[in-house]
Amino acid sequence: MVDRTRAQHELGQLLARVALRDQAAFKQLYDATVRCLLAIAVRLLRDEAWAEEVIQEAYVGIWNSAPNYSPAKAQPMTWLMTIARNKSMDALRSTTSERETRVHVAPAEDGEDDPLAAVADAALGPLQQLIERIDAARLRHCLRSLDAAQRQAIALAFYDGLSHSELAAHLRQPLGTVKAWVRRGLERLKPCLKG
User: Fold this and answer.
1) What is 1-95+126-144's CATH number?
2) Is the pTM of this model over 0.70?
């Protein structure tokens, strides 16, 4: 955990230097992150050569957007991964070959089973998994900003489904205190999660 925190801190410092147009810092940032970002693009695009082109465009975007990066809104790697994902998704949308190879299934007639139901995969795709990981990382970051009592009350309420009265009994605190912890904690989480 300490290594991950140190790595995020170092990436944040590199991004700050990139925002000042430090080319040496940009090379260090590139070297430190290109494998991860390229892996995201390859998973989405399923073509390594295409993914490499898209990641080069992503780094141009990173260079241009570095002055807009805010550590209060996202961890450095989360921000970089989001740019890589967005560039990859833009590339997917803009390609015509994807549209040409799309299989069109006729809609089900009344009384017939939906033909897509038999082939639908209920598992999350790589993009949805990535989005959920990014959201989870943002939530963990925001929860860390809360007082310990607020964090514990919110975690028990939302992850374990405890009611206010169950929280009060579990935490051995007055009901009004527990309600205040949850309310104030949620008020502090709201702007952090929107960012």
Assistant:
1) 1.10.1740.10
2) no
